[in-house]
Amino acid sequence: MRHRKMEPIINHEWDLNEKEAVKLQQELSLKVTKEDRFPEIQYVAGVDVAYSEQSDLLVAAIVILDASSLQVVESIVVEDAVHFPYIPGLFSFRELPPIVKALKQIKTSPQLVVCDGQGIAHPRRFGLASHLGVIFDIPTIGCGKTRLWGEFEEPSRERGACSLLMDHEEVIGGALRTQDNIKPLFVSVGHRISLETACNWILKLCPQYRLPETTRQADQLVRKALSQINQGSI
DNA sequence: GCGACAG
DNA sequence: ATCTTGTCGC
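^ inputs. structure came back:
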């Protein structure tokens, strides 16, 4: 099988101040597509980032899962220096640089990427998942453990229950229960996928645990890498 | 000014 | 996210 490495269709500057970052989000958010626009999905990618002791180092991991078996077929871990502080609403400017770096090196191109964070459930409708989706022009889902934006009702307590995340009259995501009696996840459109399809994929990726296998596998990798880095620096 | 605030 | 021990519960 031949592979073609992923390449961004948009290459913008990352060394921005807060005001410039907000302006860029407003511009790029116009490119987000909230409808299903993707081919058959054979590979799904998971992304996660961990921080070292003094938060001066980032470790990002990409895992590629076979969409049917949910088995890992490829993975990569990269390190990068922190170039942006953590600011709610500007999260992508902190975590995306190492993620982009890692995605460029992946040999197996995924047809869908699941992100640990929000998609359009964001004050400017441009969370990490949407940002990643737009610059690579690839379908993405935002899947956060906690809420950033929007109001919602508590979904009923069985797996699959979902209540809409609303910003006034606008639907920006869903609070989705992935297991019975477990706190819901916050699922939102990243890019080129509908909320309904996104929720169905997240449920498919959560056969046993609260978090999607994509996120769990990526989380496991960055944690292992970080512990090895810390041991080597002592 | 006060509370909220993805990871 | 990370710092951190025990502890309640299935």
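Residues 6 and 104 of chain A are 5 Å apart (CA to CA). Residues 48-51, 86-89, 91-92, 94-95, 115-118, 121-122, 127-128, 142, 144-149, 186 of chain A lie near DNA strand B (CB under 10 Å from a C1').
thumbs up if we can close this ticket
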